[in-house]
Each structure stands twice: as C-alpha cells, then as structure tokens.
Amino acid sequence: MNNNLYEHGTLAMLMAGKLSGTITLAELLKHGEHGIGTLDGLDGEVIILDNEVYQADETGTVNRITDMDATLPFASVHHAMNETTLTLPKADFNILNDTIVKEHNFKNVFVATRFHGVFEAVKVRVAPKQTRPYPGLLEIASNQPIFEKQNVSGTVIGYFAPELFGTVTAGGWHLHFLSDDRQFGGHLLDFVGTNLTGTYQIFDSLEQHFPVSDPEFRAYDIDLASLQADIQAAEGH
C-alpha cells in the first residue's frame, strides 16, 4: 500500500461550476478510509472516518451515506499509515497556520491530520445542493449556510497542501468537522480547542485522478488570472 494522497477532481473545476459527480463512493473508498469531499451538485460537506461516510447538508443535518453508487465531483482520501502523534494544548487556525506548519516544516508537503477533543467553539459552513445550470463556487460560497456550536466533542479531519498546488486543491489547510454524536458538521471556518489529541501523516506523493470520461471536464476553460484570489475567497478562512 502506497503512502499517497488520492484526490479526485480539482478545486479549479468546482470554481468553474463543474459540480456533477464523476466518481462513485465505492470507487473512491478503494483509495482511502479517511477523507473529505462533496456530493453530486456540491451537495453538502462529506466526512469519511474509518470507512464510514457522513454528509453535513445545508439544513445543518448530518446524514450517514450508505449508497455506494453516490457520486462526488471532488474528494481527497488516504489510507492511514506512518502516522505521527499530534498533541495540541491549544488550537485554532492561527496556531495551525503558523506554529504547527513551522514546527513540523509542512510548507512544501501534503499532510493529513485528524485531531479530537472538546472544542470550546466551532464554526462551519455547508455547501447547498445546486441544480443546473451550475454557478461557480465563488458565487455559491457567498451564500452558504453557516452553523456554530459551543462545547462540542468531535473530530477535525483534512489536509494541508503547499500553496504551489492551490488550484488543484485548497492551498494551506482544508478541514472538515464532525461531532461525536454525528449531529453537527461541515467545512471548518473557525474553531477554538484545548487539550486536543490526534495524528498527522506526511505523504510521499499525490495521486491526482481526473474525470477524463466527463465531456464537461474535457472542455472547460479556466480563468487563471483570477483563480487564486477566487479560491481564497471561496475557502473562507
């Protein structure tokens, strides 16, 4: 088993409004038992933990997804291996972006992280399901439901990517949250936690999978001039 991050689709595709599912969940899970993504039509935020798949939808509801024929336009997954223990006496995005990246020299590598504990505050957003003709991700991101919760026990899972790859995936941290009671989750916008414990895993390689059978993917044009700024605005932190 290779120590690699498997990614289907690209963030640039989502920015361009190519939101149709192009890989089945059954196929995706062959490449990892942990990960994040979104469903067909940008339908919510997907969290994959130990081969169990959950979707936080636009109403704030968390659903367990058991339909292996469900499709995703974009997802990142990995097999857990060669993990290093991560202890966070205090954590928020400032600490992750500054202290953690510098201490562990992450800036030029792909990294997975999972950490768990009681969070004093969690703020998430959830992509609402879209119908054709699909808008671009930036337009969707400006009108996404936001949910907040205090004193919630749960898990943060996601990835760090070098800025160099910021059009393939989100440069920096792209993290999702799922509560232990499976009642609250989404794309992590902000959080504060203390005494959190978990792991990180540095990958040897990135396996980028393209939906080459999808005619929309084959034909779409990218506005490179504005893409990076639009991605930063859409990511929301």
TrEMBL record:
GO MF annotation, one: acetolactate decarboxylase activity
This protein's pathway: Polyol metabolism; (R,R)-butane-2,3-diol biosynthesis; (R,R)-butane-2,3-diol from pyruvate: step 2/3
Major enzyme class: lyase
Domain of life: Bacteria
Catalysis performed (reactions): (2S)-2-acetolactate + H(+) = (R)-acetoin + CO2
Similarity section: Belongs to the alpha-acetolactate decarboxylase family.
NCBIfam families (alphabetical): acetolac_decarb
Protein name: Alpha-acetolactate decarboxylase
Organism: Periweissella beninensis
